[in-house]
């Protein structure tokens, strides 16, 4: 999943930076990145009949074995119709928590008839690798794994163990994600490489790189209103559809208390410096100074790119009711989808919605299931921030680096829920116009390979050396 800043940066701005640094190449690793990407994209790792996620894991295992890993240090664990991979490179000090590289091997469904190219036939064309999973996230998984192999090839000796932990159902139930997080709850830090973390201008120049330090909690609430019903020729004050509609109108208009945490405060501060829209930049600055600033909130909440970063959001997304055209409705049901700001429980937000609706006949229930979990934001760890800045600069040059909090969901939430710091921190950069994750004709620019290896070598050396 890609989490980019909702800002546009003028090419003429003073912060426009040079193209990626021409670092020393790593030809073996760079070739392996493309080879592994092609092999894994060709495997249809989609949940359901014919799921080939276990075969993806076998391809990656074979690469590690060839590079010198002991078979006993590589696990492929089946779970339902999928599997997960855990491969360990043991550090010199087993008492230290490991550094975990997290990614997922599964992809969302892709119908070949809808694509210009077969989604499960990797194709290199005009500097891009096309295929389902190229940007989300088989390419990045191959890039990170190949970089670890290169690190070992160079003779590096990590003090902390490096664990490659790739899940098999991140795009669906996340059952393997939960299991992996439980198994690695002793980790010192998790580097989630799921999707692009940087943005390129349409010219191909790097604009900025962002790391993801928190996620809002995904929740669905069901609201039911029931009545005895009756003949439509004899209307009654208690009408399930009307009552539900009144409750939804109140919830739709409701705005939760604006909030900031360490991650979002730094985001607003940094984003304001490079935002070309003066009005929006001023609102960002004012919001940091005073999160209750009504004028700033009006601007940020009116912008689709920033509204989700201000507070918890809840919106009615589905509604159904009635059983006949000539009968009073006996029931009406709605779904409310919420993205909860870190630090609040699902029960707390549901209680707030019940209070807002002020409709006693409306019965609220949490129908999210086990596919989401409440998780605090990761701390602004100085060692990670410094190592990431050094790695990005080595790979791409001195681009602006900005922390973000996502409104979506990733494997990171399962680690964070256990108190393990997890950061979305992939090496790759992408143009906004090339973002086809989960969509048709998914692609990734191959210009990411060389700087990506440089990035991972630097980041892993710094985080595992002490």
3D architecture notes:
InterPro entries: Bact_exopeptidase_dim_dom (IPR036264), Pept_M20A (IPR047177), Peptidase_M20 (IPR002933), Peptidase_M20_dimer (IPR011650). One of its GO terms (biological process) is proteolysis. Residues 1-23 form the signal peptide. There is one protein chain. The chain has 466 residues and is of the alpha/beta class. 47% of the residues are buried. The chain has 2 domains: 27-215 and 377-464, Aminopeptidase (3-Layer(aba) Sandwich); 217-366, 2-Layer Sandwich (Alpha-Beta Plaits), CATH 3.30.70.360. The model is unreliable at 1-23 (pLDDT under 50). It has 13 helices and 19 strands.
* Percentage of residues assigned to helices: 25-40%
Arithmetic mean pLDDT: 92
- Poorly predicted tracts of residues: 1-23
Integer-rounded radius of gyration: 24 Å
Specify the overall morphology: globular
The end-to-end span amounts to 30 Å
CATH superfamily of the largest domain: Zn peptidases
Assess the beta-strand content as a share of residues.
15-25%
Q: Tell me what the CATH architecture of the largest domain is.
A: 3-Layer(aba) Sandwich
CATH class label of the largest domain: Alpha Beta
The major beta sheet can be summarized as: 6 strands, mixed
Strand neighbour order, sheet with most strands: 1-2-6-3-7-17
| CATH fold label of the largest domain | Aminopeptidase
When the domains are counted, the total is 2
* Tally of contiguous helical segments: 13
Helix/strand class: alpha/beta
Number of beta-strand segments:
19
Keywords: Hydrolase, Metal-binding, Protease, Signal, Zinc
Signal peptide: 1-23
Protein name: Peptidase M20 dimerisation domain-containing protein
GO biological process, one term: proteolysis
